[in-house]
Amino acid sequence: MTCAPFESNPTMPTYPFVYLASQSPRRKELLAQLGVRYELLLPRPDEDAEALEAELPGEAADAYVVRVCALKAHAARARLIAGGHASAPILVADTTVTIDGLILGKPLHEEDAVAMLERLAGREHEVLTAIAVVDADGTLLEPALSRSAVRFAGADRAALQRYAASGEPLGKAGAYGIQGRAAEFIERIDGSYSGIMGLPLFETAALLRVARVEF
């Protein structure tokens, strides 16, 4: 996605913060790295957030991650309106890992994590992160998609089991976090390190400028 350059216009309102519709501590850290102020806009207990991540039959990974990101953005906008929150842009992101035409989501348990890691070991896979911003008027801006290739070194099952037993893979697409202990398995990357973490900063900054978020 290519965003138009940000141009100052004193007649247009700007926003001192963005709503972040994500519980990910990594996304919080990355927004702070950009100097972006944020307030959390998380799913209510009665919302089935996991249902939004269901795959469609035959769906390609890039189409999947963009679609899920847009669904989460619309859900977050509805949450903002229902909660009577102050008007401001909303930022949503979704990350998935893909290899062999498969989408590797969050592992269900430790053994599921080991199975995913065994598939990745000694091979290259792709990490896709979609970013969506709903501007303060409720318009969903065109989502951005970050693609990165990650090469895992070969690893024996015992090493992967030790990593899975640490608990780190749970809750992470593809059963690993590049910023954590999984770094011992990562031989090289080609793409966006922050995108692999879950929030590509270049694309995020561009979208936030279009939405007139101050930072």
UniProtKB/TrEMBL annotation:
The keyword Ion transport does not apply. It catalyses: dTTP + H2O = dTMP + diphosphate + H(+); UTP + H2O = UMP + diphosphate + H(+). It comes from the Bacteria. Its main location: cytoplasm. One of its GO terms (biological process) is nucleotide metabolic process. The record marks R26, T95, Q179 as: Important for substrate specificity. It is found in: Cytoplasm. Its cofactor is a divalent metal cation. The active site is at D94. It is an enzyme of class 3 (hydrolase). HAMAP family: Maf (MF_00528). Nucleoside triphosphate pyrophosphatase that hydrolyzes dTTP and UTP. May have a dual role in cell division arrest and in preventing the incorporation of modified nucleotides into cellular nucleic acids. This is dTTP/UTP pyrophosphatase. It comes from Caballeronia calidae.
